[in-house]
């Protein structure tokens, strides 16, 4: 009953086999391996973007920070929600890799900014001339940190506001596949067709050991990326082991199959929780990440029964047993229905 994070799930066996195949003999280093050529072609085909610039890094933090650094000058600011990974979970890496650009937090509901809140935030900058930060890229997270998903229309509306002011749009796609499956759309529809300029196409949370793709739909936007990746110590010499993971991920639509599996478990959890009168599901979670409020005693019983997930707002074992605390559940590709049902039984008892 492991629902703490999809980061904790195993890599898919196809990925492990791909690494063993890639390990045979010699291959050119630093991304010049033949597997990377195939990966680049695969990603361009999937995104319907034949000219896209494609690079691989090992972590989501590196992907976001380096991509934003390529889109943002040190004297600019990045517009994002207060819940964005780049704000809450990346230890100021975007500020570091951009050379000092700040983050401007945009008011959000269920971790989603709106065109109006974004416009207000943009308008509030560049009001002090040389003394204040200049406007920089807009960063959207898909799926969001609260388990919500932007529709393609919502992304397009935010992109339209950004482009109205000449700003680039970055999409943090740590759970890109989960959002895509939930929307039942194409990668192109959820990115460049909706106005996104660059996407961090995640794989680590969806069955890979550790690899993310940084995709720039206009290669001109990636002019400094390779230098920044090298200078930032994120260019792998034995790059083929990144390439092999991504190759396996994309082959035969494995990435979509794993996302569908994770989402199915997430929605099974959702349906079960919605039937419990003492539980309140928060936000509107269509994919594999959800939050719920339940009495402290309910959380304590589930955790004591062997469930693993995060509880927020207090110690689940100390305090008023009736006080409501928030639980976060994340389903990964490898989970099964029995684990979901066992957790629901503990929460229902």
TrEMBL record:
Q: According to the lineage, what is the superkingdom?
A: Bacteria
Pfam families registered for this protein in UniProt? Beta_elim_lyase
Q: Does Transmembrane helix count among this protein's keywords?
A: no
Aromatic amino acid beta-eliminating lyase/threonine aldolase domain: from which residue to which, for each copy?
3-280
Q: Which UniProt keywords apply?
A: Pyridoxal phosphate
Subunit comment for this entry?
A: Homotetramer.
Q: Which PANTHER family match?
A: L-THREONINE ALDOLASE-RELATED, LOW SPECIFICITY L-THREONINE ALDOLASE
- Family per UniProt? Belongs to the threonine aldolase family.
What protein name applies here?
Answer: Low specificity L-threonine aldolase
Species of provenance: Loktanella gaetbuli
């Amino acid at each position: 009953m492991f629902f703490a994070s999809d980061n904790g799930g195993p890599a898919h066996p196809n990925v492990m086999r791909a690494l063993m195949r890639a390990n045979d003999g010699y291959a050119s280093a630093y991304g010049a391996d033949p597997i990377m050529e195939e990966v680049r072609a695969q990603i361009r085909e999937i995104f319907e973007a034949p000219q896209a610039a494609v690079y691989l890094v090992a972590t989501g933090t590196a992907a976001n920070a380096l991509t934003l650094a390529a889109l943002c000058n040190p004297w600019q600011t990045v517009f994002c929600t207060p819940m964005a990974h780049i704000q809450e979970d990346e230890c100021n890496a975007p500020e570091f890799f951009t050379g000092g650009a700040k983050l401007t937090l945009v008011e959000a509901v269920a971790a989603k900014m709106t065109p109006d809140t974004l416009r207000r935030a943009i308008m509030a900058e560049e009001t002090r001339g040389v003394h204040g930060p200049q406007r920089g890229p807009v960063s959207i997270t898909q799926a969001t940190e609260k388990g919500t998903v932007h529709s393609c229309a919502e992304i397009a509306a935010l992109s339209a506001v950004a482009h109205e002011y000449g700003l680039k749009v970055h999409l943090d796609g740590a759970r890109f596949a989960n959002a895509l499956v939930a929307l039942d759309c194409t990668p192109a529809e959820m990115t460049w067709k909706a106005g996104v300029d660059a996407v961090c196409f995640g794989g680590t949370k969806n069955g890979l050991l550790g690899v993310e793709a940084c995709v720039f739909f206009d290669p001109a936007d990636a002019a400094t990326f390779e230098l920044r990746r090298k200078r930032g110590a994120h260019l792998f010499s034995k790059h083929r082991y990144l390439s092999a993971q991504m190759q396996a991920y994309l082959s035969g639509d494995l990435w979509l199959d794993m996302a569908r599996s994770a989402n199915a478990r997430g929605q099974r959890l959702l349906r079960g929780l919605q039937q419990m009168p003492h539980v309140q599901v928060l936000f509107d979670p269509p994919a594999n990440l959800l939050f719920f409020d339940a009495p402290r005693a309910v959380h304590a019983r589930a955790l004591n029964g062997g469930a693993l997930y995060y509880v927020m707002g207090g110690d689940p074992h100390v305090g008023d047993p009736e006080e409501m605390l928030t639980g976060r559940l994340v389903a990964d590709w490898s989970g099964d229905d029995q684990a979901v049902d066992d957790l629901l039984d503990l929460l229902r008892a």
